[in-house]
């Protein structure tokens, strides 16, 4: 949905590159892949959007590149959240099995952002109805950032389409 909206904003006068790779099980390998793509890109502006674990990665990338970030129900302490799930598991959005190894917890710790350096670069969308993560922790992690706290909803933000225009406005604003 976000990709289609971004592509619709792109034009010959204002080309926008959309990059949304399938991330790997290894957090380090995932961030190596994404940073390699960003580093070779010819784009003059960068915004990162991520949900759940992707929100955790978004924090890392936003701090590394000092860019705008939209975080949707982010796992702000991913190592803590995922430590109980080491072993064989399935993806959140499919039945695809993968081995979540103990070393991935250490990789997540290495990517942990403790404090965001410029709250004006961040937009948090947090759902009070998130069944996996604590919205209070999300709100506390992004003090001073633009925040939209949703009554109800869920971890996947089922009503995301209603909020997409705000996401686009945020990443498009100077």
TrEMBL record:
Pfam family, one: UPF0227
PANTHER family linked: ESTERASE YQIA, ESTERASE YQIA-RELATED
InterPro entries attached to this UniProt entry: AB_hydrolase_fold, UPF0227/Esterase_YqiA
Species for this entry: Polynucleobacter wuianus
Protein name, entry field: Esterase
């Amino acid at each position: 949905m976000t990709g289609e909206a971004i592509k619709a904003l792109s034009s010959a006068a204002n080309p926008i590159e959309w990059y949304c790779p399938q991330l790997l099980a290894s957090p380090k390998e995932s961030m190596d892949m994404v940073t390699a793509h960003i580093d070779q890109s010819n784009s003059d502006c960068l915004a990162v959007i991520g949900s759940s674990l992707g929100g955790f990665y978004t924090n890392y990338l936003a701090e590394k590149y000092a860019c705008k970030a939209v975080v949707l129900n982010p796992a702000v302490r991913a190592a803590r959240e995922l430590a109980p799930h080491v072993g064989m598991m399935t993806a959140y959005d499919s039945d695809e099995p993968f081995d979540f190894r103990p070393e991935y917890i250490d990789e997540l710790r290495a990517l942990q952002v403790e404090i965001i350096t410029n709250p004006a670069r961040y937009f948090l969308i947090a759902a009070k109805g998130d069944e996996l993560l604590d919205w209070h922790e999300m709100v506390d992690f992004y003090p001073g950032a633009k925040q939209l706290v949703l009554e109800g909803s869920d971890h996947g933000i089922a009503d995301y389409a209603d909020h997409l225009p705000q996401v686009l406005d945020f990443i498009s604003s100077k």
